[in-house]
Amino acid sequence: MTSLFRLLKILVTAARYRLDLLLPRHSLPWWLRLLLLPLSLFPQRNYSRGQRLRLAMESLGPIFIKFGQLLSTRPDLIPEDIVTELKALQDRVPPFAKEQFLALVETSHGESVDQIFKHFDREPLASASVAQVHAATLHDGREVVVKVIRPGIARVIEQDTRLLTLMARAVERYSSDGKRLRPVEIVEDYRTTIFDELDLQREAANASQLRRNFLHSPLLYVPEVMWDYCRANVLVLERISGIPVTDLDQLHAQNTNMKKLAERGVEIFFTQVFEHNFFHADMHPGNIFVAREHPDQPQYIAVDMAIVGSLNRADQYYLARNMLAMFRRDYRQVAELHIQSGWVPESTRTEELEAAVRTVCEPIFERPLKDISFGHVLLNLFRTARRFNMEVQPQLVLLQKTLLNIEGLGRQLYPELNLWETAHPFLERWLKQRFHPKSLWTDFKRYGPEWMEKFPEIPHLVFNALQQVQNLDEVRQELSEQRQQHAEQLRKASMRRRLSLAASASFIGAIVCLLPHWAILSASAPMLDLTHIPTTSWALAAIGTILLTLKR
Fold first, then answer.
1. Does the annotation list 147 as a binding residue?
2. 129, 266, 317, 370: which has the fewest C-beta neighbours closer than 10 Å?
3. CB 303 within 8 A of CB 237
4. Residue 104: C-alpha distances to residues 100, 195, 230 (Å)
5. What is the pLDDT of residues 520-545, one digit of tens each?
6. How far apart are CA 61 and CA 164, in angstroms?
């Protein structure tokens, strides 16, 4: 019932903001136009189409707002006027009451904000889909930001994820692509991710790890966590001063090297995914700033580390090999790796998959981002996936979302950026380092103690394994003997059945032959003269007797 009420609210919101006006009515089927007809009863209001979509997403809560944030980074797929409106969802969501904010902070710390901080700004610094941020100053003079989760947001997220789960189950059950797309698993992964975002202690730990990974790095700066002031629903971080990454006017005004900035964004992404295996998975423009120092060697600043991701070693390896094979245009290896990794069924013909991948990838190489329609590329990849029954990999969905954000950001910063030329050398270098003796020695030092701890058990484990192999041989031999005995029993039973049938047939034949003579002899003489019985009857009777004896 809760999901039903939420669905009704979504429909009412769509009607209130007349989202039907965004649809091309002339190309819709007649039955859909008929269903949309009641919406014409609602007033249109003087909103642009971008405002309609933005206001509807703001009304529906964090899941829809985050979807709008993703769309705002895709000017190649979404019209410019809509993108301009959706950018407001990145950090300008309507704030909740400051009295509630103060109450939450004071309840968590057990004292007033004036005691906790030297100065606290009552007006919000930023307001996003899940949390709100205010500026403050510690008693030692350090400037910080205070982040608090929106009150009641967990209930809204629970309703939305339940509704998404119902929709995913319907898709999985009734859609021809349901099982391949694995929508239920994807929704469950997203549910876990977004509920993790509500735990600010987890976000603080993520920020601390990310800061340690890029400590003293010229690529990325992560603000320091003030652990003494953090609680489950309150996060206090060092306040940073940077230029929003989408403020191109300020970036150009200080002569920022935009090509270098775009290339470093790609390098940061690949460094996080392949070297650190710990990547910021919510890199929409509202969470990224550019340091004002050294505009010729620009440095990124990342905030909001609530959502992070990582891959297991197998997926990390296969992903790198796949991308590298694509950069080398070795489509045969791309097809083989997809089969080896289990991303497509083992029965897939390598030659057919190779040809399909070549058809999708070949047109996009050696061209700048501005000349590439990644929307068309993704559509073609989807068609290829559908053709070869390629299952969606839930563990890679978060990575794909991050890659979309990075690509959209790179398009805005420097449209001439060639993503392939920037990423190719990095992957080549990473793959060589992965099997370099130093890397193998590092792995040995990391896992060596565990190996040495288990080493004394190896002889015993080997002996047990050999014993099991020997037992398997004995079991196999015993099963073979039982199989032979069973086959012999079946053969004998079959022979007995055949002999029984033959014996019965012989006796029946003998009786049939004897009946006429028996009747004649019985009528002519009191004593039977057996010499008058035909030889055929005696033969049939004898054969039947012999067969019955053999049967026994």
1. yes
2. 370
3. yes
4. 6, 19, 13
5. 444 444 444 444 445 544 454 555 55
6. 14
